[in-house]
């Protein structure tokens, strides 16, 4: 092979290498975009589900406050909602986010577990009437809101 042929061969090799690298980088970028999109779809679906469960539970508490339920009935209702929160926590735990979203998901998971804990303590308040338990429940629910807002803010800053 002549020197000119070798140079042509090298140039073609470099061009093919650069083209392959470009295609690979485009693939990685596309894969990352797809992973981000999938995570965000799962995340927002989880948020929507959580909001629905929370709204439904609070409607039940309002009925209890209006004396439409007695204490044992609200305890039974609370227990059934706790199992729904268990399901939401399991669902959140099963999401595998891209690394950049891991902290946001962890914060949302903390929010869910704090909200669930709040309702456990609230149930205990309903059973015992101990006002300290009601205060603790409110504090846990406040923490849940704080973690949720931190998660939302982080998600928005990363998008």
Question: What secondary-structure arrangement, pairings included, does this model have?
Answer:
Elements: H1 3-65, H2 71-94, H3 102-128, H4 131-158
Describe this structure in words.
There is one protein chain. With about 160 residues, the protein is an all-alpha fold. It has one domain (about 35-159): Up-down Bundle (Four Helix Bundle (Hemerythrin (Met), subunit A)). It has four helices and no strands. Mean pLDDT is about 85; it is low at about 20-30.
Number of domains: 1
* Total number of helices: 4
Radius of gyration: 26 Å
Q: What composes the largest sheet?
A: none
- Structural category is mainly alpha
Number of E-state strands:
0
CATH architecture: Up-down Bundle
Order of helices and strands: HHHH
What does the overall shape look like?
elongated
CATH class: Mainly Alpha
Spans of at least 5 consecutive residues whose pLDDT stays below 50 are: 18-30
Termini distance?
53 Å
Strand content: under 5%
CATH topology: Four Helix Bundle (Hemerythrin (Met), subunit A)
Averaging pLDDT over every residue, what do you get?
Answer: 86
Helix content: over 70%
What descriptors fit this protein?
single chain, 159 residues, 0% strand, elongated
Brief summary:
Helices cover 89% and strands 0% of the residues. It has 159 residues and is mainly α.
């Amino acid at each position: 092979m002549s020197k000119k042929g070798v140079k042509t061969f090298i140039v073609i090799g470099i061009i093919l290498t650069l083209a392959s690298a470009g295609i690979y980088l485009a693939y990685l970028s596309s894969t990352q975009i797809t992973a981000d999109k999938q995570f965000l779809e799962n995340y927002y679906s989880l948020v929507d589900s959580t909001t629905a469960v929370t709204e439904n539970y609070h409607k039940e508490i309002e009925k209890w406050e209006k004396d439409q339920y007695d204490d044992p009935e609200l305890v039974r209702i609370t227990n059934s909602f706790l199992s729904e929160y268990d399901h939401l926590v399991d669902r959140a735990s099963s999401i595998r986010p891209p690394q950049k979203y891991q902290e946001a998901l962890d914060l949302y998971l903390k929010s869910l577990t704090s909200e669930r804990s709040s309702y456990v303590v609230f149930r205990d308040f309903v059973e015992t009437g101990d006002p300290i338990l009601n205060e603790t429940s409110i504090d846990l629910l406040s923490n849940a809101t704080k973690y949720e807002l931190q998660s939302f803010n982080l998600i928005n800053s990363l998008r």
